[in-house]
Design a protein that fits this description.
Strand content: 15-25%
Number of helices: 12
Helix content: 25-40%
Distance between the termini: 8 Å
CATH class of the largest domain: Alpha Beta
Number of strands: 20
Oligomer: single chain
Strand order of the largest sheet: 9-7-5-2-10-1-11-15-19-20
Length: 432
Protein backbone atom coordinates (compact mmCIF):
# COMPACT_ATOMS: atom_id res chain seq x y z
CA UNK A 1 0.00 0.00 0.00
CA UNK A 2 1.45 3.44 -0.90
CA UNK A 3 2.43 5.62 2.05
CA UNK A 4 0.10 8.51 2.86
CA UNK A 5 2.94 10.19 4.74
CA UNK A 6 6.70 10.04 4.23
CA UNK A 7 9.79 11.54 5.81
CA UNK A 8 9.67 14.60 3.55
CA UNK A 9 6.09 15.49 4.59
CA UNK A 10 5.28 16.89 8.00
CA UNK A 11 2.34 19.16 7.12
CA UNK A 12 -0.41 18.14 4.70
CA UNK A 13 -3.40 20.28 3.81
CA UNK A 14 -6.82 19.13 2.63
CA UNK A 15 -8.89 21.54 0.52
CA UNK A 16 -12.19 21.20 -1.33
CA UNK A 17 -11.96 21.64 -5.10
CA UNK A 18 -15.61 22.36 -5.94
CA UNK A 19 -18.49 23.96 -4.01
CA UNK A 20 -17.91 21.96 -0.84
CA UNK A 21 -19.49 18.64 0.19
CA UNK A 22 -16.72 16.78 -1.64
CA UNK A 23 -16.19 14.19 1.11
CA UNK A 24 -13.30 15.79 3.00
CA UNK A 25 -14.33 14.09 6.25
CA UNK A 26 -13.42 10.62 5.03
CA UNK A 27 -10.02 11.71 3.72
CA UNK A 28 -9.22 13.62 6.91
CA UNK A 29 -10.13 10.50 8.85
CA UNK A 30 -7.95 8.37 6.55
CA UNK A 31 -4.90 10.66 6.72
CA UNK A 32 -5.56 11.45 10.36
CA UNK A 33 -4.79 7.87 11.32
CA UNK A 34 -1.09 8.67 10.95
CA UNK A 35 -1.29 12.34 11.96
CA UNK A 36 -0.39 13.69 15.38
CA UNK A 37 -2.55 16.81 15.02
CA UNK A 38 -5.57 17.63 12.84
CA UNK A 39 -6.22 21.38 12.71
CA UNK A 40 -9.21 23.18 11.22
CA UNK A 41 -8.53 26.65 9.86
CA UNK A 42 -11.87 28.29 8.92
CA UNK A 43 -15.65 28.00 8.88
CA UNK A 44 -18.16 27.20 11.57
CA UNK A 45 -21.06 24.83 12.26
CA UNK A 46 -22.60 25.61 8.87
CA UNK A 47 -20.62 22.73 7.35
CA UNK A 48 -20.80 19.04 8.18
CA UNK A 49 -18.09 16.43 7.71
CA UNK A 50 -19.51 12.91 7.49
CA UNK A 51 -17.45 9.90 8.61
CA UNK A 52 -18.83 6.36 8.45
CA UNK A 53 -17.60 3.24 10.25
CA UNK A 54 -19.54 0.20 9.10
CA UNK A 55 -23.19 1.02 9.81
CA UNK A 56 -22.48 3.92 12.17
CA UNK A 57 -22.33 7.42 10.73
CA UNK A 58 -21.01 10.54 12.47
CA UNK A 59 -21.64 14.07 11.21
CA UNK A 60 -19.17 16.54 12.71
CA UNK A 61 -19.81 20.27 12.44
CA UNK A 62 -16.99 21.82 14.47
CA UNK A 63 -14.71 19.12 15.88
CA UNK A 64 -12.10 17.97 13.30
CA UNK A 65 -12.59 14.49 11.87
CA UNK A 66 -9.30 13.32 13.38
CA UNK A 67 -11.05 12.97 16.73
CA UNK A 68 -11.82 9.31 15.91
CA UNK A 69 -8.14 8.41 16.28
CA UNK A 70 -7.36 8.21 20.02
CA UNK A 71 -3.77 9.45 19.64
CA UNK A 72 -4.64 12.56 17.59
CA UNK A 73 -4.90 16.13 18.92
CA UNK A 74 -7.64 18.20 17.25
CA UNK A 75 -7.23 21.96 16.96
CA UNK A 76 -9.61 24.80 16.05
CA UNK A 77 -7.68 27.78 14.72
CA UNK A 78 -8.30 31.51 15.01
CA UNK A 79 -9.97 31.48 11.58
CA UNK A 80 -12.85 29.35 12.89
CA UNK A 81 -16.08 30.74 14.37
CA UNK A 82 -17.48 28.67 17.23
CA UNK A 83 -21.01 28.21 18.54
CA UNK A 84 -20.49 27.63 22.30
CA UNK A 85 -23.73 25.69 22.70
CA UNK A 86 -23.54 23.38 19.71
CA UNK A 87 -19.85 22.53 20.19
CA UNK A 88 -20.63 21.24 23.69
CA UNK A 89 -23.51 19.17 22.29
CA UNK A 90 -21.13 17.71 19.71
CA UNK A 91 -18.56 16.90 22.40
CA UNK A 92 -21.23 15.27 24.59
CA UNK A 93 -22.31 13.05 21.69
CA UNK A 94 -18.74 11.95 20.98
CA UNK A 95 -18.00 11.31 24.66
CA UNK A 96 -21.21 9.26 24.98
CA UNK A 97 -19.81 7.00 22.24
CA UNK A 98 -16.60 6.49 24.19
CA UNK A 99 -14.53 9.00 22.17
CA UNK A 100 -12.32 11.19 24.41
CA UNK A 101 -12.39 14.87 23.50
CA UNK A 102 -11.47 17.21 26.36
CA UNK A 103 -7.83 16.19 26.73
CA UNK A 104 -7.34 16.13 22.94
CA UNK A 105 -8.90 19.44 21.89
CA UNK A 106 -7.13 22.77 21.38
CA UNK A 107 -9.19 25.93 20.79
CA UNK A 108 -7.47 29.10 19.64
CA UNK A 109 -7.87 32.09 21.94
CA UNK A 110 -8.28 34.11 18.73
CA UNK A 111 -11.31 32.20 17.41
CA UNK A 112 -14.52 34.22 17.37
CA UNK A 113 -17.79 33.19 19.01
CA UNK A 114 -21.22 32.88 17.42
CA UNK A 115 -24.03 34.49 19.44
CA UNK A 116 -27.74 33.63 19.14
CA UNK A 117 -28.25 37.10 17.63
CA UNK A 118 -25.89 36.17 14.79
CA UNK A 119 -28.25 33.35 13.88
CA UNK A 120 -31.30 35.65 14.03
CA UNK A 121 -29.55 38.24 11.86
CA UNK A 122 -28.55 35.53 9.38
CA UNK A 123 -32.09 34.22 9.05
CA UNK A 124 -33.73 37.65 8.94
CA UNK A 125 -31.22 38.93 6.39
CA UNK A 126 -31.84 35.97 4.09
CA UNK A 127 -35.59 36.59 4.24
CA UNK A 128 -35.10 40.28 3.38
CA UNK A 129 -32.65 39.81 0.51
CA UNK A 130 -35.29 39.59 -2.19
CA UNK A 131 -33.90 38.38 -5.50
CA UNK A 132 -30.32 37.94 -4.24
CA UNK A 133 -30.66 35.05 -1.82
CA UNK A 134 -27.36 33.39 -0.98
CA UNK A 135 -28.94 30.24 0.40
CA UNK A 136 -27.16 30.31 3.77
CA UNK A 137 -27.67 27.66 6.44
CA UNK A 138 -28.90 30.31 8.88
CA UNK A 139 -26.29 29.28 11.46
CA UNK A 140 -24.99 32.83 12.02
CA UNK A 141 -21.67 32.36 10.24
CA UNK A 142 -21.76 35.47 8.03
CA UNK A 143 -22.81 37.89 10.80
CA UNK A 144 -20.14 36.45 13.13
CA UNK A 145 -17.42 37.04 10.52
CA UNK A 146 -18.89 40.49 9.83
CA UNK A 147 -18.46 41.41 13.49
CA UNK A 148 -14.89 40.08 13.35
CA UNK A 149 -14.14 42.39 10.41
CA UNK A 150 -15.98 45.26 12.08
CA UNK A 151 -13.91 44.64 15.23
CA UNK A 152 -16.95 44.20 17.47
CA UNK A 153 -16.77 40.42 17.84
CA UNK A 154 -16.03 38.42 20.98
CA UNK A 155 -13.02 36.12 20.87
CA UNK A 156 -12.71 32.91 22.85
CA UNK A 157 -9.73 34.30 24.77
CA UNK A 158 -11.79 37.22 26.06
CA UNK A 159 -13.86 34.78 28.13
CA UNK A 160 -10.82 34.02 30.27
CA UNK A 161 -10.84 37.58 31.63
CA UNK A 162 -12.75 37.00 34.91
CA UNK A 163 -13.59 40.68 35.38
CA UNK A 164 -14.31 42.01 31.92
CA UNK A 165 -15.94 39.37 29.73
CA UNK A 166 -19.51 39.56 31.05
CA UNK A 167 -19.76 43.32 30.53
CA UNK A 168 -18.43 42.94 26.97
CA UNK A 169 -21.01 40.25 26.20
CA UNK A 170 -23.88 42.23 27.72
CA UNK A 171 -22.90 45.30 25.68
CA UNK A 172 -22.76 43.20 22.49
CA UNK A 173 -26.17 41.62 23.16
CA UNK A 174 -27.89 44.92 23.95
CA UNK A 175 -26.39 46.60 20.91
CA UNK A 176 -27.51 43.80 18.57
CA UNK A 177 -30.97 43.60 20.18
CA UNK A 178 -31.46 47.28 19.35
CA UNK A 179 -30.45 46.56 15.76
CA UNK A 180 -32.83 43.59 15.51
CA UNK A 181 -35.69 45.66 16.91
CA UNK A 182 -35.17 48.64 14.62
CA UNK A 183 -34.45 46.66 11.42
CA UNK A 184 -36.77 43.68 11.74
CA UNK A 185 -39.10 44.34 14.67
CA UNK A 186 -37.54 41.31 16.34
CA UNK A 187 -37.41 41.21 20.17
CA UNK A 188 -33.82 39.96 20.15
CA UNK A 189 -32.16 37.42 22.42
CA UNK A 190 -32.09 36.92 26.17
CA UNK A 191 -28.84 38.27 27.60
CA UNK A 192 -28.98 36.10 30.72
CA UNK A 193 -29.29 32.95 28.62
CA UNK A 194 -26.33 34.06 26.53
CA UNK A 195 -24.24 34.75 29.66
CA UNK A 196 -25.17 31.36 31.11
CA UNK A 197 -24.23 29.50 27.91
CA UNK A 198 -20.88 31.29 27.71
CA UNK A 199 -20.22 30.57 31.40
CA UNK A 200 -20.79 26.84 30.81
CA UNK A 201 -18.52 26.99 27.76
CA UNK A 202 -15.70 28.50 29.85
CA UNK A 203 -16.20 26.10 32.75
CA UNK A 204 -16.00 23.06 30.52
CA UNK A 205 -13.47 24.14 27.90
CA UNK A 206 -11.10 26.63 29.53
CA UNK A 207 -8.42 23.93 29.70
CA UNK A 208 -8.59 23.64 25.89
CA UNK A 209 -8.04 27.34 25.15
CA UNK A 210 -4.50 28.22 24.08
CA UNK A 211 -2.25 29.85 21.47
CA UNK A 212 -2.82 27.33 18.68
CA UNK A 213 -0.34 29.05 16.35
CA UNK A 214 2.65 28.49 18.62
CA UNK A 215 1.48 24.98 19.58
CA UNK A 216 1.38 23.96 15.91
CA UNK A 217 4.76 25.50 15.15
CA UNK A 218 6.37 23.78 18.13
CA UNK A 219 4.81 20.47 17.12
CA UNK A 220 6.06 20.87 13.55
CA UNK A 221 9.58 21.67 14.68
CA UNK A 222 9.53 18.60 16.91
CA UNK A 223 8.78 16.36 13.94
CA UNK A 224 5.05 15.88 14.53
CA UNK A 225 2.71 15.28 11.60
CA UNK A 226 0.09 17.98 11.05
CA UNK A 227 -3.02 17.65 8.91
CA UNK A 228 -4.83 20.89 8.09
CA UNK A 229 -8.50 20.87 7.08
CA UNK A 230 -11.00 23.47 5.98
CA UNK A 231 -14.73 23.51 5.46
CA UNK A 232 -16.62 24.09 2.17
CA UNK A 233 -14.65 24.30 -1.09
CA UNK A 234 -12.64 26.58 -3.38
CA UNK A 235 -15.68 27.95 -5.25
CA UNK A 236 -17.16 29.10 -1.93
CA UNK A 237 -14.09 31.15 -0.95
CA UNK A 238 -15.12 34.71 -0.14
CA UNK A 239 -12.43 36.13 -2.47
CA UNK A 240 -12.06 33.45 -5.14
CA UNK A 241 -15.49 31.84 -5.18
CA UNK A 242 -18.69 32.66 -7.08
CA UNK A 243 -19.25 35.85 -5.07
CA UNK A 244 -21.73 36.76 -3.58
CA UNK A 245 -22.89 33.11 -3.51
CA UNK A 246 -20.05 32.12 -1.21
CA UNK A 247 -19.24 31.52 2.45
CA UNK A 248 -17.77 34.21 4.71
CA UNK A 249 -14.17 33.00 5.02
CA UNK A 250 -11.20 31.92 2.92
CA UNK A 251 -11.65 28.24 2.16
CA UNK A 252 -8.51 28.04 0.01
CA UNK A 253 -4.90 27.36 1.01
CA UNK A 254 -4.24 30.97 2.01
CA UNK A 255 -6.95 30.63 4.65
CA UNK A 256 -4.91 27.92 6.34
CA UNK A 257 -2.01 30.30 6.92
CA UNK A 258 -4.13 33.14 8.31
CA UNK A 259 -6.57 30.81 10.07
CA UNK A 260 -3.92 28.88 12.00
CA UNK A 261 -0.94 31.20 12.17
CA UNK A 262 1.29 28.90 10.12
CA UNK A 263 3.72 30.34 7.59
CA UNK A 264 3.22 29.25 3.94
CA UNK A 265 6.56 27.43 3.80
CA UNK A 266 5.38 25.08 6.54
CA UNK A 267 2.93 23.34 4.18
CA UNK A 268 4.60 20.38 2.48
CA UNK A 269 1.72 18.88 0.47
CA UNK A 270 -1.71 20.06 -0.70
CA UNK A 271 -4.36 17.46 -1.50
CA UNK A 272 -7.50 18.57 -3.32
CA UNK A 273 -10.73 16.67 -2.65
CA UNK A 274 -13.18 16.41 -5.53
CA UNK A 275 -16.17 14.33 -6.47
CA UNK A 276 -16.32 12.28 -9.66
CA UNK A 277 -19.12 14.69 -10.59
CA UNK A 278 -20.06 18.18 -9.31
CA UNK A 279 -22.55 19.38 -6.69
CA UNK A 280 -23.43 22.57 -4.92
CA UNK A 281 -25.90 23.64 -2.22
CA UNK A 282 -27.65 26.98 -2.20
CA UNK A 283 -27.99 29.53 -4.94
CA UNK A 284 -25.56 30.77 -7.56
CA UNK A 285 -24.32 29.81 -11.04
CA UNK A 286 -23.60 26.16 -11.79
CA UNK A 287 -22.66 25.65 -15.48
CA UNK A 288 -22.83 21.82 -15.58
CA UNK A 289 -25.98 21.44 -13.47
CA UNK A 290 -28.31 18.65 -14.60
CA UNK A 291 -31.98 19.47 -14.13
CA UNK A 292 -33.17 16.20 -15.62
CA UNK A 293 -33.54 12.54 -14.68
CA UNK A 294 -29.77 12.01 -14.83
CA UNK A 295 -29.19 14.73 -12.25
CA UNK A 296 -31.95 13.26 -10.10
CA UNK A 297 -30.46 9.78 -10.35
CA UNK A 298 -27.02 11.07 -9.28
CA UNK A 299 -28.66 12.82 -6.32
CA UNK A 300 -30.52 9.67 -5.31
CA UNK A 301 -27.63 7.20 -5.75
CA UNK A 302 -25.10 9.59 -4.17
CA UNK A 303 -27.48 10.53 -1.33
CA UNK A 304 -26.75 14.14 -2.10
CA UNK A 305 -28.44 15.93 0.76
CA UNK A 306 -26.72 18.48 3.01
CA UNK A 307 -25.13 17.04 6.16
CA UNK A 308 -26.14 20.14 8.15
CA UNK A 309 -29.50 21.14 6.68
CA UNK A 310 -30.70 18.09 4.74
CA UNK A 311 -31.21 20.29 1.68
CA UNK A 312 -31.02 18.45 -1.67
CA UNK A 313 -27.79 19.26 -3.48
CA UNK A 314 -27.75 20.39 -7.08
CA UNK A 315 -25.92 17.81 -9.21
CA UNK A 316 -24.07 18.04 -12.51
CA UNK A 317 -21.26 16.66 -14.66
CA UNK A 318 -17.60 16.98 -13.70
CA UNK A 319 -16.34 20.49 -14.49
CA UNK A 320 -12.65 20.53 -15.41
CA UNK A 321 -12.70 24.34 -15.74
CA UNK A 322 -13.40 24.91 -12.05
CA UNK A 323 -11.05 22.07 -11.09
CA UNK A 324 -8.18 23.64 -13.07
CA UNK A 325 -8.97 26.93 -11.37
CA UNK A 326 -8.74 25.23 -7.96
CA UNK A 327 -5.36 23.76 -8.94
CA UNK A 328 -4.06 27.22 -9.81
CA UNK A 329 -5.39 28.92 -6.68
CA UNK A 330 -4.31 26.20 -4.24
CA UNK A 331 -1.22 24.69 -5.85
CA UNK A 332 -2.50 21.10 -5.66
CA UNK A 333 0.04 18.29 -5.44
CA UNK A 334 -2.52 15.51 -5.80
CA UNK A 335 -6.24 14.74 -5.71
CA UNK A 336 -8.54 12.44 -3.83
CA UNK A 337 -11.58 11.56 -5.96
CA UNK A 338 -14.75 10.68 -4.10
CA UNK A 339 -17.94 8.80 -5.01
CA UNK A 340 -16.74 7.15 -8.20
CA UNK A 341 -19.29 4.37 -7.60
CA UNK A 342 -22.19 6.85 -7.93
CA UNK A 343 -21.58 6.92 -11.71
CA UNK A 344 -21.68 3.13 -12.14
CA UNK A 345 -25.22 3.09 -13.58
CA UNK A 346 -24.72 5.63 -16.38
CA UNK A 347 -24.48 4.70 -20.10
CA UNK A 348 -22.28 7.66 -20.88
CA UNK A 349 -20.49 10.26 -18.78
CA UNK A 350 -19.61 13.81 -19.70
CA UNK A 351 -16.70 16.03 -18.70
CA UNK A 352 -16.88 19.79 -19.17
CA UNK A 353 -13.56 20.80 -20.72
CA UNK A 354 -14.30 24.48 -21.48
CA UNK A 355 -17.12 27.06 -21.60
CA UNK A 356 -18.70 28.81 -24.57
CA UNK A 357 -19.58 32.46 -23.95
CA UNK A 358 -21.17 34.14 -26.96
CA UNK A 359 -18.51 33.65 -29.68
CA UNK A 360 -15.65 32.91 -27.25
CA UNK A 361 -14.24 29.63 -25.94
CA UNK A 362 -13.18 29.98 -22.29
CA UNK A 363 -10.74 27.45 -20.89
CA UNK A 364 -10.09 29.52 -17.76
CA UNK A 365 -12.66 30.19 -15.04
CA UNK A 366 -14.18 33.65 -15.68
CA UNK A 367 -13.91 36.22 -12.83
CA UNK A 368 -17.21 37.88 -13.80
CA UNK A 369 -20.45 36.53 -12.35
CA UNK A 370 -22.55 37.78 -15.28
CA UNK A 371 -20.32 35.79 -17.66
CA UNK A 372 -20.48 32.62 -15.57
CA UNK A 373 -24.27 32.86 -15.45
CA UNK A 374 -24.42 32.81 -19.27
CA UNK A 375 -21.76 30.27 -20.27
CA UNK A 376 -22.57 26.97 -21.95
CA UNK A 377 -20.43 23.97 -21.01
CA UNK A 378 -18.46 22.27 -23.77
CA UNK A 379 -18.53 18.54 -23.14
CA UNK A 380 -16.37 15.58 -23.93
CA UNK A 381 -18.40 12.34 -23.88
CA UNK A 382 -16.96 9.11 -22.51
CA UNK A 383 -18.61 5.69 -22.35
CA UNK A 384 -19.85 4.51 -18.97
CA UNK A 385 -18.64 1.28 -17.41
CA UNK A 386 -22.02 -0.14 -16.30
CA UNK A 387 -20.28 -2.30 -13.70
CA UNK A 388 -20.20 -1.88 -9.93
CA UNK A 389 -17.08 -0.26 -8.53
CA UNK A 390 -18.50 -0.26 -5.01
CA UNK A 391 -15.90 -1.18 -2.41
CA UNK A 392 -13.07 -1.92 -4.88
CA UNK A 393 -9.66 -1.41 -3.27
CA UNK A 394 -7.25 -2.06 -6.17
CA UNK A 395 -6.92 0.30 -9.15
CA UNK A 396 -6.36 -2.56 -11.61
CA UNK A 397 -9.69 -4.10 -10.53
CA UNK A 398 -11.65 -1.06 -11.76
CA UNK A 399 -13.47 -1.40 -15.10
CA UNK A 400 -11.42 -0.21 -18.08
CA UNK A 401 -13.79 2.67 -18.84
CA UNK A 402 -13.67 3.84 -15.22
CA UNK A 403 -9.88 3.99 -15.42
CA UNK A 404 -10.09 5.89 -18.73
CA UNK A 405 -12.42 8.41 -17.08
CA UNK A 406 -10.03 8.92 -14.14
CA UNK A 407 -6.99 9.20 -16.40
CA UNK A 408 -8.71 11.68 -18.70
CA UNK A 409 -9.45 13.93 -15.73
CA UNK A 410 -5.82 13.66 -14.63
CA UNK A 411 -4.74 14.70 -18.11
CA UNK A 412 -7.08 17.69 -18.16
CA UNK A 413 -5.96 18.87 -14.71
CA UNK A 414 -2.27 17.94 -15.05
CA UNK A 415 -2.44 16.64 -11.49
CA UNK A 416 -2.46 13.00 -10.31
CA UNK A 417 -5.39 11.37 -8.54
CA UNK A 418 -3.68 9.45 -5.72
CA UNK A 419 -6.73 8.44 -3.66
CA UNK A 420 -10.03 7.03 -4.96
CA UNK A 421 -13.09 6.45 -2.80
CA UNK A 422 -15.46 3.67 -3.84
CA UNK A 423 -17.74 3.68 -0.79
CA UNK A 424 -18.48 5.80 2.27
CA UNK A 425 -16.73 3.32 4.53
CA UNK A 426 -13.02 3.67 5.35
CA UNK A 427 -12.28 0.35 3.68
CA UNK A 428 -13.69 1.42 0.30
CA UNK A 429 -10.54 3.26 -0.76
CA UNK A 430 -7.93 2.86 -3.48
CA UNK A 431 -4.44 4.25 -2.82
CA UNK A 432 -2.37 4.73 -5.97
Amino acid sequence: MPALWDDSVRVQLIVGVQWGDEGKGKIVDLLGEEADIVARYQGGPNAGHTVQFGQEKFILHQIPSGIFHPHTICALGNGVVINPVSILEEIDLLESKGIRVYDRLWISAGAHLIFPYHQVLDQMGEEEDGEIKIGTTGRGIGPAYADKAYRTGIRVGMLLDPKGWESKVIHAVRSKNQLLSKLYGNPGVNEEQVIDSFRVFVQRLQGCIRDVSIELENARRNGKRLLLEGAQGTLLDIDFGTYPYVTSSNTTVGGACTGLGLNPRAIDRVIGILKAYTTRVGNGPFPTELKDEIGESIRKVGMEFGATTGRPRRCGWFDAVIARYAVRINGMDAFAMMKLDVLDHLDEIRICTAYRYKDQILEDFPPFLHVLEQVEPIYEVLPGWKTSTFGITQYEALPVNARKYIERIESLLQTPIRILSTSADRKGTILR
